[in-house]
Every structure is written in structure tokens, then in C-alpha cells.
Design a protein that fits this description.
This protein is α/β, with parallel strands linked by helices. It has ten helices and twelve strands. Pathway: Amino-acid biosynthesis; L-histidine biosynthesis; L-histidine from 5-phospho-alpha-D-ribose 1-diphosphate: step 5/9.
Length: about 250
């Protein structure tokens, strides 16, 4: 079995790392360059950097900040926020990103997934899906969770895979920042129905939640932010606990 991955997420706004609850009430969580270096040294498997206001503010991801982070880390590094063209991806990869994450732009222009996968390879393209339950259906949302769409999670995820995405980063908006555990039922269905890796996001609060998302949720990777940023869970401690629980991880 492939090793399960632990991925700290740096949500960036105005050059600082921030964290909220259910996508609102953001608070400062530190300098992204310093945090990235710490996580790389502590044994994180990958990093995700999301410029959460890039799409909303109609500006491009902070390529200079990407470059500064890439200089400090020696693990795969995914960058998202405001990416809508081959040119955007080119700039980020030149500045040190290993993969890119697209979200709103993919829903608005699904052909973008095909184009990016053809140009850069599927292994480079992560499609992020933010969804929450409305009347029992998982509905996809855009622009940092502010705009509901007519897309349903499982149908959209399948289309994303067919168009050439290499991974899906699924964030449950209902669970985000609540520290009540991941959306394991939805994750398990995604993992069962799709053949590409699924990254779980939204809800990490304790060590057991990670074990649960790898066993009950069948996730390939678990992404978290505040529990790492505010030193509630250490990455080394987490991986040792996962290993004790029979979860394959890289130590």
C-alpha cells in the first residue's frame, strides 16, 4: 500500500497565513515562508499554498512568495489561487511550484483541466473542490466558498478525473475549521468511485481524526491547517501515531 501523506495547508491572504472556521472569521497564523520551512523539516510529505483571495480579488497568485517558499522546502509544493490559464501555471512552475491547484476556473471552464493536463501532465494538476451539503446533496461552491453552483460533488469529481486531473483536493465546507473530524462518508465514496488520489480537507482536530480519514474515509492524503499552525498537533507525533495504528506513512 502506498504511504499516506500528511499535508499542511498555507491559506494566504495579503501575504500572511490565515485560518478561519467554515471559510469565514479569518485570523492570522504566521509568516508563510517560516511555516513552510518548519513543516518541511518536521517531515510533512507535501505543502499546499492557497492564495485564498486571488480569485475573489481578480489578481494572480503571488509568484514572488511562491519562489521564496520553494527556496526553503525540499518536498512537493502545490500552489493554487486565481489560476486560469496555461500562462499562469507556467509562471508558478518556473517559480518553484511542483503542482498547481485549480478550483473556480475549472468549474467555469472545464476544458482548462484538459488543456493543463495535456501541457504539463496529469501529475501536475490538482482540482480543488469545495462543497457543502444543501438539502442532503453535496453542492460545489466557488470563490472561496461564497458562490454556490449547480454542480454536484460526485458528478463533478468524476468529470474532473475524466478530463485529466491527477488528484482531487476535497474540502467539506461544513467541516472546515470545526475540528470535528473529516467528511469520511463523502471521502469514502469519492475514493471508491474514482481512480485518482483523494486529499481530505476540512475538520482535522485531533490525532484520531487522521486515522479515521485514512481508514473510514479511504483518503490518500490528509490536509490540515490550524492544528499545525497553532502547534496543537506535531507532524512527527502524528505520523508516529498513524504508524502505531497500522497506517503506512513515511517517517
Amino acid at each position: 500500500m502506498l504511504a499516506k501523506r500528511i499535508i499542511p495547508c498555507l491559506d494566504i491572504k495579503d501575504g500572511r497565513t490565515v485560518k478561519g472556521v467554515n471559510f469565514v472569521d479569518l485570523r492570522d497564523a504566521g509568516d508563510p515562508v517560516e511555516l513552510a520551512e518548519i513543516y518541511s523539516k518536521e517531515g510533512a510529505d507535501e505543502l499546499v499554498f492557497l492564495d485564498i483571495s486571488a480569485t475573489e480579488q481578480k489578481r494572480k497568485t503571488l509568484a514572488e512568495l511562491v519562489y521564496r517558499i520553494a527556496e526553503k522546502v525540499n518536498i512537493p509544493f502545490t500552489v493554487g489561487g486565481g489560476i486560469s490559464s496555461i500562462e499562469d501555471v507556467d509562471i508558478l512552475l518556473q517559480n518553484g511550484a511542483d503542482k498547481v491547484s485549480i478550483n473556480s476556473s475549472a468549474v467555469k471552464n472545464p476544458q482548462l483541466i484538459n488543456d493543463l493536463a495535456a501541457k504539463f501532465g496529469s501529475q501536475c494538476i490538482v482540482v480543488a473542490i469545495d462543497a457543502k451539503q444543501i438539502d442532503g446533496e453535496w453542492i460545489v461552491h466557488l470563490v472561496g466558498g461564497k458562490v454556490p453552483t449547480e454542480r454536484k460533488l460526485f458528478e463533478w469529481a468524476k468529470e474532473v478525473e475524466e478530463r485529466g486531473a491527477g488528484e482531487i483536493l476535497f474540502t467539506s465546507m461544513d467541516h472546515d475549521g470545526t475540528k470535528g473530524g473529516f467528511a469520511n462518508e463523502a471521502l469514502a465514496r469519492l475514493s471508491t468511485e474514482l481512480n485518482i488520489p483523494i486529499i481530505a480537507s476540512g475538520g482535522a482536530g485531533n490525532l484520531q481524526h487522521f486515522t479515521d480519514t485514512f481508514t473510514l474515509g479511504k483518503a490518500d492524503a490528509a490536509l490540515a491547517a490550524s492544528v499545525f499552525h497553532f502547534k496543537e498537533i506535531g507532524i512527527t507525533e502524528l505520523k508516529e501515531k498513524l504508524k502505531e495504528n497500522g497506517i503506512p506513512v513515511r517517517l
